[in-house]
Amino acid sequence: MTPRFDAISIITADLAASLAFYRRLGLDIPEGAESAPHVEVALPGGQRLLWDTEEVIASFDPEWKRPAGGERVALAFACDGPQEVDALYAELVAAGYTGHLKPWDAVWGQRYAVVLDPDGCGVSLFAPASPAASPGAPSSGAGASSGVK
């Protein structure tokens, strides 16, 4: 038997805030999920995105501690075009989320921005900068090290 990639898990300090953020990014998270200690959402392609509260993790791993320093997970959301990157970034910042890297035209041919989720995890928003942009460009936090803010 060969293991297969199945899910990404987010450990959150505030489940309701985290779910509200990811709903704004278009994930179909059931209403009322905020009251559960564990939430799962099916993603296109068959993988899942999971949320657990810090308390749930500590209940079975008493040595677990909230990570300090850099982020441990970065997610990336593909947008339909550069204008959607700009608009979605502006919408999320206006809603009170922290903008980490304002939209810019990255050297690898994408319009790129990074917003922090309620737990401080970087969430990249990206789209081809132009219709002729290279499809082999990075599609996650890899480009965020450019230092553009």
Written description of the protein model:
- It is built from 3 helices and 7 strands.
- 26% of the residues are buried.
- The chain has 149 residues and is α/β, with parallel strands linked by helices.
- Mean pLDDT is 85; it is low at 133-149.
- The protein has helices at 15-24, 54-60, 82-94, and strands at residues 7-12, 38-42, 48-53, 75-78, 98-105, 110-116, 122-128.
- The chain is globular.
- 20% of the residues lie in helices and 29% in strands.
- It has a 4-stranded mixed beta sheet with strand order 4-7-6-5, with helices on one face. A 3-stranded mixed beta sheet has the order 1-3-2.
Give a brief rundown of this model:
The chain has 149 residues and is of the alpha/beta class.
Which properties best describe this structure?
single chain; 149 residues; alpha/beta; four-stranded mixed beta sheet; three-stranded mixed beta sheet; globular
SSE layout:
Layout: E1 7-12, H1 15-24, E2 38-42, E3 48-53, H2 54-60, E4 75-78, H3 82-94, E5 98-105, E6 110-116, E7 122-128
Parallel strand pairs: 1-3, 4-7
Antiparallel strand pairs: 2-3, 5-6, 6-7
Low-confidence spans: 133-149
- For the secondary structure, the number of strands is 7
Oligomeric description of these chains: single chain
* Beta fraction: 25-35%
